[in-house]
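dude i think i finally got it to work??
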Amino acid sequence: KCLDEQMLREYYCDPDSSKGLHSTDYACTAGYACSNGACVESCFDTDGGATPNQAGYVKKGEQTYIDVCISSNSLKEYVCFSGNVDSLIYEGPNCPKGCVSGGFGAYCKP
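look at this
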């Protein structure tokens, strides 16, 4: 059972005890979150999703995926989709003023 996004409670029976059901709480490690009663790799997008005019990156588990310019007017933006990492390409008319690389990823000039 998930107590919150970072804490998991595991229930078990102790065969040597007449007290019945016991539980132990576990903290999910960095890069993981509690979901449906298990610690699973979490996916977090710093710019909130499909936002080509804002630099950012996606973190899933221990992996980091940074938005990047793939040409002077093309952006590859990473996003979380259904808990997994996906990428979108913005180019030409979708990135008309050009792509700029920054310290926390790349973006299309607004």
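The chain has a mean pLDDT of 90.
im so relieved honestly
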